[in-house]
Write a structure and sequence with these properties.
Elements (H helix, E strand, L loop, with lengths): L17 E6 L6 H17 L1 E2 L2 E2 L2 E6 L3 E6 L8 H18 L8 E6 L2 E6 L3 H6 L8 E3 L6 H7 L1 E3 L4 H11 L2
Antiparallel strand pairs: 1-5, 2-3, 4-5, 6-7, 6-8, 8-9
Length: 172
């Protein structure tokens, strides 16, 4: 599934560039988004691995998802450089009072808007038609630039949710 986010991905980065996706539990206000973009820009400009600059990229997508990317073909990312990115995300969490490490809330694109659904309410959303097999799901488990481009925003039926939840809700 192709979406406008693919147009923002850096063409000069290798397809196997490493990706981290952090999902906020709410949409950022415009003033927050502008501050976050500045923080991301400053982080990438100074991102290092054992003193060597990391070929990095960071952006805020859909006003709610922070995506970090490192082209490890240029410089490998070490534990310390990964730790520094986590510190950045935690600083954003604290400054803007958002949750960015919550893996129990899923994001879907419904009628052109991002809708958050707690995992505990997924069956209800499926049974009541709020989410269906063709609803677009933000698959934040993507790990590379190529996956971000092709497997991040996909229909529920094509995600890990499809086999696990669509069959169980159809059986009810």
């Amino acid at each position: 599934m192709n979406s406008h986010h693919t147009e923002l991905l850096p063409a000069e980065f290798a397809g196997d560039s490493r990706v981290w996706v952090y999902q906020a539990h709410r949409l950022f206000f415009l003033s927050e988004a502008l501050q976050i973009e500045k923080m991301l820009e400053e982080f990438v400009a100074d991102w290092k691995s054992h003193g060597t600059p990391v070929k990095g990229y960071a952006n805020l997508f859909y006003g709610q998802f922070i995506v970090l990317m490192a082209d490890e073909n240029a410089t490998g990312v070490s534990g310390c450089s990964t730790d520094s990115s986590v510190r950045l995300i935690k600083a954003i969490e604290q400054k803007f009072q958002v949750q960015l490490f919550d893996r129990l809330t899923l994001a879907f694109q419904v009628k052109g808007k991002t809708q958050m659904v707690p995992m505990s309410q997924l069956h209800y959303a499926l049974e009541n038609g709020l989410i269906g097999p063709d609803t677009l799901y933000f698959n934040n488990t993507v790990q590379t630039k190529d996956e971000l481009a092709t497997k991040w925003l996909i229909p529920v039926k094509d995600s890990w949710l499809g086999g696990r939840y669509l069959k169980s809700s159809a059986a009810r």
